[in-house]
Amino acid sequence: SAVISQKPSRDICQRGTSLTIQCQVDSQVTMMFWYRQQPGQSLTLIATANQGSEATYESGFVIDKFPISRPNLTFSTLTVSNMSPEDSSIYLCSVGVMTGELFFGEGSRLTVL
Amino acid sequence: QKEVEQDPGPLSVPEGAIVSLNCTYSNSAFQYFMWYRQYSRKGPELLMYTYSSGNKEDGRFTAQVDKSSKYISLFIRDSQPSDSATYLCAMSAYNTDKLIFGTGTRLQVFP
């Protein structure tokens, strides 16, 4: 398994600002993923962040809105840019391991006013 | 049509009951099936992981996959109030990192 720490755990932000969420893993992992969880909806994959390459974004998500960094095998950040109330959600970092299982952080609960 | 369908509940049962949670899916390429448990204000926690069809048991939990019907189930025996959480099914195709999640079923086990 993997222990994943996310910061911040929650934040309240003003419209038009940006917030960067950090994800730290206690072991080296190749695959890291960022998900969004909106009330009453499925977890939706935003992008896959593999170290040494550009993040791969899913349909409906773009790099200008959700820039991602992956400087090493234990750390990643997701920035939510130019926020609007529609961006209010829980953002989750997850890592994949060799067995194919996926482990999640506690999530970052974002409220945009 | 969503790729994965899951009844959102809530499902309310008395302590000691057998709970059945289910998901249906449309993509016949799905090979890996998972169940996650998510407590309020926490991240999802992997409960069960199965490959292809069949059953897998782990303590009070049994995961069942029927690929012919595109139907998966999670059974919880002797349910406890501590089992109260949202249960999410998730699945992926072979040779892909992408997991597709159901919306989750909220379970409440009352004493």
Termini separation of chain B comes to 37 Å
Which percent range fits the helix content of chain B? under 10%
Proportion of residues in β-strands of chain B = over 45%
Number of strands of chain A: 11
Mean pLDDT of chain B: 93
The multimeric state of the shown protein is: heterodimer
| H-E order of chain A | EEEEEEEEEEE
Radius of gyration of chain A: 13 Å
The global form of chain B is globular
* Gyration radius from CA atoms of chain B, angstroms: 13 Å
The helix count of chain B comes to 0
**Computed structural class of chain B:** mainly beta
Please name the two chains that share the biggest interface, counting residues whose Cβ lies under 8 Å from a Cβ on the partner chain.
A-B, 23 and 24 residues
Helix content of chain A: under 10%
Q: Work out the strand percent of chain A.
A: over 45%
- The sequence of SSEs of chain B as H and E is EEEEEEEEEEE
The rounded distance between the terminal residues' Cα atoms of chain A is: 36 Å
Low-confidence stretches of chain B: none
- List low-confidence stretches of chain A: none
* Structural class by secondary-structure content of chain A: mainly beta
Number of helices of chain A: 0
Characterize the structure shown.
- The complex is a heterodimer of chains A (113) and B (111).
- By secondary structure, chain A is an all-beta fold.
- Helix content of chain A is 0%, strand content 52%.
- In chain A, strand 9 and strand 10 form a beta hairpin.
- Chain A starts with a strand and ends with a strand.
- The mean pLDDT of chain A is 92.
- In chain B, 0% of the residues lie in helices and 58% in strands.
- Chain B has no helices and 11 strands.
- Chain B is globular and about 40 Å long.
- At the A-B interface, strand 5 and strand 10 of A face strand 4, strand 5, strand 9 and strand 10 of B.
